[in-house]
Amino acid sequence: MTAGRRRDHGSASIELAILLPTFAFLIALAYLFGRTTVSQAAVDLAAHDAARAASLQRTSSAASAAAEAAARATLSSQGTVCVRLTVAADTSGFRVPVGQPASVTVSVTCTVRLTDLGFAHDRSIAGSFSSPIDAYRER
Questions:
Q1: Are the CB atoms for 82 and 47 separated by under 8 Å?
Q2: Residue 138 lies in a domain
């Protein structure tokens, strides 16, 4: 019996050396997936809030400014840090005559830093939302 035990001596160290990097990679992958999912939800919410804020304005320029401010505020409240943030508001609906349906569409693109997780590139996450403009609101 002692001969069998001597052959297994040190095998736990080898198993640990093989499995530990695999577990560390799986934990990093789960953290990456979680960060991406939470960031996508925050960007979608920011696009929704920005489109709603823009649709409540009276002019195209005020709508663009409101969309930018709302997107930044929502991302900040969600704890999402963007390396680069782009808020593009399609405010062409403000040129539609009163009485006809129109909408504002806002696209939010946020670049999330992933280099702190050991990945070589950051990830760009985008979301878009449209909100109707009241057909009888003065434009």
A1: no
A2: no
Parent domain of 17: 2-133
- Nearest CA among 67, 55, 69, 78 for reference residue 133: 55
Is 103 among the domain residues? Answer: yes
Indicate the pairing of strand 123-133 with strand 102-112.
antiparallel
Q: Which secondary structure element, helix H or strand E, spans residue 129, and what is its range?
A: strand 123-133
Average pLDDT of the segment spanning 120-127: 89
The answer to whether position 38 is within a domain reads: yes
CA dist 94 and 66 (Å) reads 14
Residue 139 placed within a domain = no
Strand-pair partners of 106: 89, 129
Amino acid at 10: G
β-strand partners of 124: 111
pLDDT tens string 82-111: 999 999 999 999 999 888 899 999 999 999
Instruction: Find tokens 């996508």 and name the residue.
Output: 40
Q: How many domains does the chain have?
A: 1
CA 23, chain centre distance (Å): 26
Give residue 64's identity as a one-letter amino acid code. Answer: S
Q: How many CB atoms lie within 10 A of CB 52?
A: 17
